[in-house]
Amino acid sequence: MKLTTKLLLFIFILAGAQTFQAKPRHAPAVAPEPTIHFKGYYATDKAQKGRVVRAAVVLDIPDGYHVNANKPLGKYAIATTVKIEPPGGVTVGPIIFPRAVVRKLKATNNESLAVYEGRAIMRFNVTVPANYGDGWLNLRAKVRYQSCNDDVCFPPKNQEIDFGIGIVGANERVQAANGWVFGGK
Prior knowledge:
mainly beta; 12 strands; Immunoglobulin-like; 38% strand
């Protein structure tokens, strides 16, 4: 009888250990860092020597995410910056940033933050000198930004894009382009 009791006790302890075994806790899923797409655009199909052409850098931000604005309001938020490097002789005007949306987010303890969501378009003018010798103009845009979702901000990133346009004489015809970026059709 002692053997049977011991055997039953062993089975009971084994079954109880299975029941009371520590189960791993599942950590809440953290959203992956978003892929922010950048592209450069010009307002015409070609640029004329001695004239100004409008240009823009467009950020496409996935749903559920945002990028801090160029004036983010938050004490520790990293501002979005855009620096344009033109070729010699070409001048670039000030960059006009879009109006930001103000949000209060968990990631910042409900502190107000100015952010860009969806699509952000940064516009500027490019002046091509009358004596510009090349038939092509290439701009390099350096963009620094910090992306976040409602719960967490990701480390800041730096990204570079190059975008070019053909150069024609001052009296040659150019066609409007990319109206959706510059307010046309």
